[in-house]
């Protein structure tokens, strides 16, 4: 088989899953990761649809179930803390059947554990240059080393350095949806027990939740912004932007914001999507958010990463390592799936962050009446139907 040495940039969900499948098919993957270790914590994410089939084939479904968040329910609250409406966790999250919710860091650890003894990991390093000479890709690393690999795959997220090096600047491909998101750990001062609380005001949504796997809690902020100019690595600047956006808000907002200074996992970024005409160029390919980020508003980023990793490795194996055929087969098999899930993002965020006082008033009124309505679970299932349809918009081959 040709082209067996593969450098994967990024040890997130997409990168560790791809390393597993490539190794299983007889390739020799190496993973380079900017962070000093696998990232812990993170937001709770869902595995649904075709992605469930992927993790089942990996043999980790039972472990994922043991690590699930087990969030029991969610409530919408007013500024004074009064709960307007509540529903079960699976109903609120649009989950059905075997769909599972897990913390991103827990899933990443499970996938890493599958591969750490069989795959070379280069932590605390990154790619600074790529030279595709037709027979291989010469890679220069930030720490000064230089190596040549048969293929390179960028699994390094929305702000992919691999994409920038091989395809051009981020501005060509990243499209903001007009919103930003911030997530970080906070003390569980409300003593939530596997429960989620959401507060909504014009242009801003905030929530706090606890899970079975965390003695603390998480705070999440979604807010309308348009374009913001800031350094993606300047935490202090990002925290000021967040504080300014929520200045004067009620509920638990001030106390939650106080917690961000000490949070070990502070995250802040735009809600954006990546749109590209092609996901490969020569011996370099992209998967996951680097190729087709659907934004967290889609609820499908993790599933896209898992499915993409499975298909890319399988198509390369089916093509005997012929990268042109393998990359082409991967894109042909997954582009429709990616586009269907990307389509969810713009519509979902408009329901998550309401722009006007009248919209907020109307939604709060409807939610306060929901507990009196029969069949509210069926109503929510109907609302979530597009999500479930997109999650199943691919038929996986047996490679």
Description:
By secondary structure, this protein is an alpha/beta fold. It has a domain of 194 residues: FAD/NAD(P)-binding domain (3-Layer(bba) Sandwich). 37% of the residues lie in helices and 25% in strands. It contains 15 helices and 18 strands. Strands 5-4-13-14-15-12-16 form a seven-stranded mixed beta sheet, with helices on both faces. A six-stranded mixed beta sheet has the order 7-2-1-11-18-17, with helices on both faces. A three-stranded antiparallel beta sheet has the order 8-9-10. A hairpin with a 5-residue loop joins strand 4 and strand 5. The model has no long low-confidence stretch (mean pLDDT 92). It comes from Streptosporangium minutum. This is FAD-dependent oxidoreductase.
């Amino acid at each position: 088989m040709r082209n067996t040495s593969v450098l994967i940039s990024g040890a997130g969900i997409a990168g560790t899953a791809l390393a597993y499948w490539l190794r299983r098919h007889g390739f020799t993957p190496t993973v380079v990761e900017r962070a000093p270790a696998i990232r812990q914590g993170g937001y709770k994410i869902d595995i649904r649809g075709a992605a469930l089939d992927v993790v089942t084939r990996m043999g980790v479904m039972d472990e994922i179930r043991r690590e699930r968040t087990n969030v029991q329910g969610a409530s919408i609250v007013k500024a004074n803390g009064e709960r307007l409406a509540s529903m079960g966790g699976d109903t609120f999250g649009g989950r059905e059947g075997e769909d599972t919710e897990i913390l991103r860091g827990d899933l990443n650890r499970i996938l890493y554990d599958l591969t750490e003894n069989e795959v070379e990991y280069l932590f605390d390093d990154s790619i600074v240059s790529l030279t595709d000479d037709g027979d291989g890709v010469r890679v220069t690393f930030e720490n000064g080393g230089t190596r040549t690999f048969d293929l390179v795959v960028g699994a390094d997220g929305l702000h992919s350095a691999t994409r920038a090096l091989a395809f051009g600047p981020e501005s060509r491909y990243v499209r903001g949806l007009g919103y930003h998101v911030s997530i970080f750990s906070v003390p569980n001062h409300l003593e939530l027990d596997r429960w989620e609380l959401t507060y909504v005001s014009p242009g801003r949504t905030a929530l706090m939740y606890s899970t079975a796997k965390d003695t603390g809690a998480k705070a999440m902020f979604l807010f309308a912004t348009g374009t913001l100019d800031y350094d993606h690595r300047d935490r202090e600047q990002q925290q000021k932007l967040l504080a300014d956006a929520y200045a004067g808000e009620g509920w638990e907002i001030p106390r939650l914001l106080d917690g961000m200074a000490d949070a070990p996992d502070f995250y802040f970024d735009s809600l954006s999507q990546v749109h590209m005409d092609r996901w490969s160029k020569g011996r370099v390919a992209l998967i996951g958010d680097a190729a087709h980020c659907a934004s967290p508003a889609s609820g499908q980023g993790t599933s896209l990463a898992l499915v993409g990793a499975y298909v890319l490795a399988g198509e390369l194996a089916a093509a005997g390592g012929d990268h042109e055929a393998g990359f082409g087969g991967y894109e042909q098999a997954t582009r429709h799936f990616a586009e269907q899930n990307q389509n969810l993002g713009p519509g979902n965020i408009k329901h998550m962050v309401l722009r006007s006082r009248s919209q907020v008033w109307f939604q709060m009124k409807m939610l306060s009446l929901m507990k009196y309505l029969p069949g509210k679970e069926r109503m929510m299932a109907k609302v979530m139907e597009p999500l479930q349809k997109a999650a199943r918009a691919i038929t996986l081959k047996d490679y």
